[in-house]
Design brief:
The complex is a heterodimer of chains A (127) and B (496). Chain A has 127 residues and is mainly alpha-helical. Chain A is 73% helix and 0% strand. Chain A has a single domain, classed as Helix Hairpins (Orthogonal Bundle), CATH 1.10.287. In chain A, helix 2 (11-29) packs antiparallel against helix 3 (33-55). Chain B has helices at 8-23, 29-54, 80-107, 113-132, 136-154, 160-191, 196-209, 213-230, 239-245, 249-275, 277-282, 285-306, 310-330, 334-364, 382-396, 402-413, 418-447, 462-480, 482-494; strands at residues 61-65, 74-78. Chain B has a two-stranded antiparallel sheet with strand order 1-2. In chain B, a hairpin with an 8-residue loop joins strand 1 and strand 2. In chain B, helix 8 runs antiparallel to helix 10 (249-275) and helix 14 packs antiparallel against helix 15. Chain B is globular and about 75 Å long. The chains are: A mainly alpha (127), B mainly alpha (496).
Chain lengths: 127, 496
């Protein structure tokens, strides 16, 4: 029962850990380059989940202060800092994914494959 | 009203970012090149002015970015050490661009040449932020910017092997920055802050109460591994030889000279400002970094001996030289970190000069890249030969050159940490012999009489001549007048 309680209490951290390991295994094990990028995205998403959960407080509102409510106590809202960080993180993640995909497309045009082992072999032969 | 020099760090960063944006609209490669050199020169001078203003009073300051004061806003922190390092980075980027300009025109498509300087501006911006930032999350964002701009610098030479090298570099770098980000998130969750000073204060409170000990050890491990991947720390170095050797000369020089140093500096700042050396010692993180540094030092040199391609040899040597830096950090003392900082300057100046000289020597012989094909090339560009020779001797650690001073400081700094003295001195001696084993034959090769007439003799390259002359002067200056530089580093570290 205690264990179950702890699991429920740390559900976000637990899900984030599972997602992170899934992403990392994808990045390490997959030979297809696009699948590696997907792995990276899963890793990033897991970190964002963990970060967003740090700022969330059960029962509180989104930190959007309406006109005339500025004096309201901060206790009404969730912590807005992690949300801001997640948004920045998403922008970074999107840019990195776009860059990776463009690079993969260029490599495919050059070698006709997206298999990392084949690519390493082809590059060795070219050198 | 703040004194004018308090604005210098932010002005330098904004100048770099602004010029990156403006250069994207420039179509003329030569104009973009002039702007890139101008930016490096202006930022170097501004950093020099900052150093000049801070040193007499041994002062450091915090600059609030935007209108939100601590603990909510974003901050920069500047002191003599940061000013010295950024001045060195700007200088190295400028000299690398000058030294590699002829190769840039040869390797990069003319219509994309101007975009190359967008990337050098972004790289410089990232280096400045990593050195000056007082905010952990800003550090993460600029680690990613440095990754993307560095990848673009690698793939500037638009060939298949270079693209694959870029991709491997990109994936490993992203893994490194991912680990760093988890570290930031976990640190935020236990301390509730992102600004380094506030995080450091909370950590002192947590340590005094004995809470979150395991989590903090895990977090330092994540930072070390994440930034270690980015800085080619052994055993996370596999991406470096391909990425640094397959690209154009200026990129190799900028990447080896500066980009891998930015993340090391962030690690040093985290160790000193956030976690404190006492905590790093208590958790034995310094011992791990020390062991990996020694292994990198030896392994990098052995791999360089086996290498037959000139630029790849220099790239393997960079892994060995990063090993020196990590060994200094791993000593876990202020003196060790000061020696590591000095070696950052030494390696940045010497290695960028070596890459530029090898690029020039290779151009003299029709852009051939194998070492044996460079026989006698120094006789066709004496200055490139002298630069290569002095750079190599500096890396070996010959007196009156920069590398000797950093090895001397590294050796003397081990006296503070008795348990590591023997291992460090043995590794230094072995590494010096190994360095000589690959650099001396290379020096002999470039100065030997050529067996055949050299092909494709390159025309005079005045940009390279200026770069090589200044680089040689800097390497000799660091080797002769090392005491004042070390004094700045020691003062800077005490104010970090």
């Amino acid at each position: 029962m205690e264990l179950l309680k702890a699991l429920v209490e740390h559900r976000y951290a637990l899900t984030a850990s599972i997602l992170f390991v899934t992403g990392l295994m994808n990045l390490m094990q997959q030979r297809h380059l696009v699948r590696k990028v997907i792995g990276l995205n899963i890793m990033d998403a897991s970190i964002f989940l963990l970060l967003a959960s740090q700022g969330y407080v059960e029962g509180r509102a989104a930190p959007v202060v309406a006109a005339g409510m500025a004096e309201q106590a901060a206790e009404l809202y969730i912590n807005p800092v992690p949300s801001g960080l997640v948004l920045t993180g998403i922008v970074v993640s999107v840019s990195v994914s776009a860059f990776s995909l463009a690079l993969i497309q260029k490599i495919y045009r050059e070698y006709g494959t997206t298999d990392i082992k084949e690519l390493v072999h082809l590059v060795k032969r070219e050198d | 009203m703040l004194p004018f020099y308090h604005y210098i760090p932010s002005v330098c960063i904004l100048l770099c970012l602004l010029s990156a944006i403006l250069l994207a609209a420039v179509r003329n490669g030569r104009a973009a090149f002039a702007a890139g050199i101008g930016l490096a020169a202006v930022t170097a001078v501004l950093s020099g002015v900052l150093l000049f203003m801070l040193m007499p009073a041994e002062e450091s300051f915090t600059f609030v970015m935007g209108h939100f004061p601590a603990p909510f806003g974003n901050e920069l922190k500047a002191g003599p050490l940061q000013a010295l390092l950024t001045m060195c980075f700007s200088l190295v980027v400028g000299l690398s661009l000058l030294g590699g300009w002829a190769d840039l025109k040869h390797d990069v498509q003319p219509d994309k040449l101007s975009l190359y300087f967008v990337m050098t501006s972004l790289t410089l911006a990232a280096l400045y932020v990593l050195t000056y930032t007082n905010d952990m999350f800003t550090g993460y964002v600029f680690i990613e910017i440095s990754t993307l701009s560095a990848c673009a610098l690698v793939m500037a030479k638009d060939r298949g092997p270079t693209l694959v090298a870029t991709l491997r570099y990109l994936f490993l770098s992203l893994l490194g920055s991912g680990l760093f980000l988890i570290g930031v998130v976990l640190l935020y969750s236990v301390t509730g802050h992102l600004l380094m000073k506030q995080v450091g204060q909370q950590i002192i409170v947590l340590r005094s109460t004995g809470r979150f000990g395991l989590q903090l050890a895990f977090i330092i491990g994540l930072f070390t591994a994440g930034l270690g991947v980015k800085s080619a720390m052994f055993p996370f170095h596999r991406w470096l030889p391909d990425a640094h050797s397959s690209t154009t000369t200026a990129s190799s020089a900028i990447l080896s000279g500066t980009v891998i140093k930015g993340t090391v500096i962030l690690l040093i700042i985290l160790f000193c400002r956030v976690f404190t050396l006492g905590m790093v010692n208590a958790l034995h993180i310094d011992d791990v970094v020390f062991a990996l540094g020694i292994m990198g030092m030896i392994f990098g040199s052995i791999s360089a001996i086996r290498e037959r391609q000139s630029k790849r040899m220099l790239a393997w040597s960079s892994i060995a030289q990063m090993g020196y830096i990590f060994t200094g950090i791993g000593l876990g003392t202020r003196a060790g970190i000061a020696a590591a900082c000095f070696h950052i300057l030494v390696h940045a100046t010497s290695k960028s000069m070596l890459f530029c000289c090898v690029g020039r020597l290779s151009a003299v012989n029709g852009h051939r890249k194998m070492l044996k094909e460079m026989q006698g090339t120094a006789r066709h560009d004496i200055l490139a030969g002298i630069g290569f020779t002095l750079g190599a001797l500096s890396m070996i650690g010959i007196p009156l050159l920069a590398g000797f001073a950093s090895k001397l400081y590294l050796a003397t700094s081990t006296m503070d940490s008795a348990s590591k003295t023997a291992a460090t001195l043995f590794a230094l001696a072995l590494s010096t012999v190994l360095n000589a084993l690959y650099y001396i034959p290379a020096i002999v090769t470039v100065w030997a009489y050529p067996e055949d007439a050299l092909i494709g003799r390159a025309p005079r390259d005045s940009a390279f001549t200026v770069s090589a002359a200044v680089s040689i002067a800097v390497v000799i200056l660091l080797g002769v007048a090392y005491a004042p530089v070390m004094h700045i580093i020691e003062v800077g570290l005490s104010l970090l």
